Structure formats: C-alpha cells, structure tokens
Amino acid sequence: MPNHKYALVCGAGGFIGGHLVKRLKKEGFWVRGIDLKQHDYSKLPADDFIIGDLRDPVICKNILDKPFDQVYQLAADMGGAGYIFTGEHDADVMHNSASINLNMSYYSQKAGVKKIFYSSSACMYPAYNQEDPDNPKLSEDSAYPAAPDSEYGWEKLFSERLYLSFQRNYGLNVRIARFHNIFGPEGTWTGGREKSPAAMCRKVAEAKDGGEIEVWGDGKQTRSFLYIDECLEAVRRLVDSDFTGPVNIGSEEMVTINRLAEIAMEVAGKKLSIKHIPGPLGVRGRNSDNHLIKQKLGWAPSQPLKVGMEKTYKWISEQVEKAKAAALAR
Ligand code: NAD
Questions:
Q1: Does one domain contain both 125 and 143?
Q2: Ligand 1 atom closest to Cα of 17?
C-alpha cells in the first residue's frame, strides 16, 4: 500500500481548485481533480483529472472510489458581481451549486470519506450588516437572522447547513470556510465572471498611460481581498485542525474600490483617471473579521494587498499582451 494520502479536489479546473491541486501535490498527496473543464491557464500536476458534471449523482458516486482522506468541495456555479448580482443567473446558481453539494455530502458520507472541506462565501452574511462602508459586521456569529443579498449567498448558507447536518446525523467530518474575495494569477480575468482585483488589473493593463478606466458605482464601496497563497495556507490549517468552522478566511485590510484601482495603477506605473459608471455593486461595505481564525488556528495574512496585486497584475498584463498578439495574428 503506498504511503501517501488521497485527496479529491472538486472544481479543480477553477481558480482556487487549480492552485490547491498544485499545493497538495507539493505536500505529497495523491490528487484526483474533477471539473466540467480542464484548467484554463495551467497544466495541472494532478495524478488523475476527470472531466465530469458533479450535478450527476452517478459521477459523484464513481469519483469517490478511492479511500479519500480529504475531499475539497470547491465546485460552484459562480462569478463576480457581473454574474451573481444581476439576477439573470439566479436559477442556475441555486440549482447547479445545490445539486453539487447535495450529491457530494451524501456520497462522501456513503463512501466513508475521512474529511470534507466546503468553501462557503462572505456572501452568506446578512445585507443589513453591510450597509455602512466604514463599519461592516462580518463576525461568524452575525450570520443570523439570515438575509444574504444574493441567491448565491442563500445557496452557500443552505449548503453550510447541509454539511453540518451530515456531520451531526451521520458523523461526516466537515470543515467549512467562508472565503472573502480571493484573488491572484490564473483566475478569470475577462468575460464577465472576473472579480474586481482581476477586472482592475485588466482595465489598467489595457489602458494607455494618461487614459481612463471605468469603475462601477461611485467606487466608495469597501471590500477586502486575500491573495491565493494565503488562502490555501488557511484552508490547509483548517483541514488539519480539529475545528469545524464555519470560519472566515479573508483579509482585514479593507479598501474602497477606488483605492483598489489606484493600487493597480501604482503597480503598473500608470496614471489614469477613473470614470464612474452604473453597474452591479453588491453590498456597500465588506471586510473579513479574523478574530475567530486567529484564535482557533493562529492564522492571519502575512502580506499586504499591494504585494498580491503586483503578482496578479504581472500575470494579467501578460494575458492582455497575449490576447492582443493573437488578435493581430487573426
Ligand atoms: P471558479 O469558478 O474558478 O471555480 C469553480 C469551478 O467549479 C469551475 O472550474 C467550474 O467549471 C467548476 N464547476 C461548476 N459547476 C460544476 C459542475 N456541475 N461539475 C463540476 N465542476 C463544476 O471559482 P473559484 O474562485 O475557484 O471558487 C472556488 C469556490 O470558492 C467556489 O465554491 C466559490 O463559491 C468559493 N468562493 C470563492 C471566492 C473567491 O473570491 N474566489 C469567494 C467566496 C467563495
């Protein structure tokens, strides 16, 4: 019997899943990935990569045919504000993601999976605590009375409860994190599903020095952003701990969207003006509250936002150049 641990990454063709596969391989795991698609930007070092639809119960049953020590359930129908806050994708978001979680909780328990990690989101927190851009409240115990501002958030809340029910009734060993805006290279950077750090980097990379970029709303809405490597460190600590969660995994360095745009300009060395245009916005203020994770796991981000933005800008500006070259070649 080989001496390694088995991990399954659901959503391995996505941004966080792809980085997680690489990290687990470095740690010596045997890794199976599953996704609807291959990873868009990287050849992943997974031992086994299955193209499959996790809404299909038969697929979920079949992919659990190894003695998995750890399952990471990251697959979801999701995107940035341009995808989840317009209302146009609500039925798909709820049905697709809930189906995946209904299948994965049930079959993981049946298959005797030792631990399952579920990625929830800060979007499950009540909108009424996120109206003041300077003073949002997102401690883990502020989740109820529930009032997420999107169907995406409601599905996350439902699925948190689903996994916790399987833990309570069937002893499924569950870990739950609420991610707050994770960003970095090799994530969606164009096409409407990208998040704001990637969108800012792309807009700045595409703009001529002295030109202009567009920002949705007045840009005074606040958010915090966590670099992917920091996120994975927190996830791995959570999974290796005895703490179930749900726990926030995010940064407490809250910035306005205007400031985020300025950071992108600073790392690019470009001076641009900002034009505010109407667009989907989400809540007014959001910041991670890291008291619980510090207390339980001794974890906090190790680097400021700007360092992660430098790495992300470098990668996105390369993608922009490649896309320009490809368009010229056509
Ligand atoms: P992503 O969209 O890059 O990755 C999700 C992956 O799931 C995609 O590759 C997609 O193809 C796959 N998928 C969707 N439906 C599927 C299906 N039916 N069967 C198989 N695969 C399917 O997103 P991400 O940023 O890597 O996020 C990963 C998880 O973290 C998601 O659950 C997301 O809701 C959660 N999350 C992310 C953030 C963030 O800032 N990135 C914040 C909060 C929560």
A1: yes
A2: 26
Q: If you measure from the C-alpha of residue 266 to the centroid of ligand 1, how many angstroms do you get, rounded to a whole number?
A: 30
Dihedral pair phi/psi, residue 209, rounded to 5°: -55, 135
Domain range holding 31? 6-182+226-249
In this predicted structure, the answer to whether residue 234 has a pLDDT above a threshold of 70 is yes
Choosing from 72, 107, 125, 152, which is the catalytic residue? Answer: 152
Q: How far apart are CA 63 and CA 76, in angstroms?
A: 17
Co-location of 133 and 270 in the same domain: no
Residues 29 and 153 in one domain: yes
Q: Are 149 and 199 in the same domain? A: no
To the nearest 10 degrees (0 to 180), the angle between helices 305-329 and 257-268 is: 70
**In terms of DSSP H, where are the helices of 14-56?**
15-26
Query: Does residue 67 form part of some domain?
Result: yes
Ligand 1 is surrounded, with C-beta below 6 A, by 11, 13-17, 35-37, 53-55, 74-78, 96, 100, 119, 121, 179, 181-182, 188, 195
Indicate whether 92 and 16 sit together in one domain: yes
pLDDT at 2 over 80: no
Please say whether the beta carbons of 265 and 306 come within 8 A: no
Q: What is the pLDDT of residues 257-267, one digit of tens each?
A: 999 999 999 99
Q: For 108-165, write each residue's pLDDT tens digit.
A: 999 999 999 999 999 999 999 999 999 999 999 999 999 999 999 999 999 999 999 9
**How many Å apart are CA 104 and CA 57, to the nearest integer?**
8
Q: pTM above 0.85?
A: yes
Q: What is the pLDDT of residues 53-81, one digit of tens each?
A: 999 999 999 999 999 999 999 999 987 66
